[in-house]
Design a protein that fits this description.
The structure is a single chain. With about 140 residues, this protein is an all-alpha fold. It is built from four helices and no strands. The longest helix is centred in the C-terminal third of the chain and has 33 residues. The chain starts with about 20 loop residues before the first helix and ends with a helix. The relative contact order is 0.09.
Amino acid sequence: MNHNLPPTPDTSFDNPHKQRHGLARLWHALRHSLAGLRAGWAEKAFRLEAVLALVLLPLSCWLGRGWVEVALLAGSVVAVMVAELLNTAVESAVDRVGPQWHALSKRAKDLGSAAVLLALLFCGAVWVAALVARFG
């Protein structure tokens, strides 16, 4: 017996979803992802970003001069949506702990908000640069 190995964790209390494999696991993951998108849709900021994405994603195909530019334009839009979903997840987790004010709760929410801000600034910079390159 090798005493240098860590003990095997007791998996009897694991989430039953972790026991799935193959297509069943992918199917359930897709269902959870779609539920997450529906939950995101309940957020005003995400809805606004999603509507803008409906305009900007096709526009990125027209504005970009090659696949790299199209990918950068579209990716910057998607990055904003990803940051917004993650920010909402952080806020939900913090709110689950309790409604009382706490410095760490504020910090977590501020960091999530800062991530969205950086994604928005990056997206704006990419789009301005592409517009200037195309028309300037």
